[in-house]
Design goal:
Jelly Rolls, 123 residues, 46% strand, 0% helix, mainly beta
Length: 123
């Protein structure tokens, strides 16, 4: 008999502080990963790229994304796509903490430590 799906609550998952003003947690499946990010006003931007497709959904606040040569501001309820291997970064706007949910595919091996709490789900 199959085990019932385990339900988790974002607010109870272990959070990692990335740097001052940026924290995150994650949840994964077999082939994709969701990463919840909290971006505080005044946080340092860190342009980077990775081989993963990234879909960003803003839950609250506003975020200015720099994606390649483009700059776009995104608010609550809006989504955008960041293609693989494109240099990008984001920063919170205004005085509110921005909360965004990123979906990555395929799984990010460098973020697997964020989902260690799920190990039993994949035994």
């Amino acid at each position: 008999m199959a085990t019932a799906p385990k339900v988790y609550q974002w607010s109870r998952l272990p959070k990692e502080v990335v740097r001052e003003g940026v924290s995150r947690t994650a949840f994964r499946g077999d082939n994709a990963m969701m990463v919840m990010n909290w971006l505080e006003p005044g946080m340092e931007k860190k342009p980077h790229s990775h081989p993963f497709e990234q879909l960003a959904f803003i839950l609250s606040g506003r975020v200015r994304f720099e994606i390649g040569d483009d700059v776009v501001e995104v608010g609550a309820g809006e989504v955008l796509r960041i293609p693989p291997d494109v240099v990008h970064c984001g920063e919170a706007l205004g005085d509110e903490v921005a909360v965004n949910l990123d979906v990555f595919a395929p799984l990010r091996s460098d973020y697997m430590h964020l989902t260690e709490y799920q190990e039993a789900d994949f035994d």
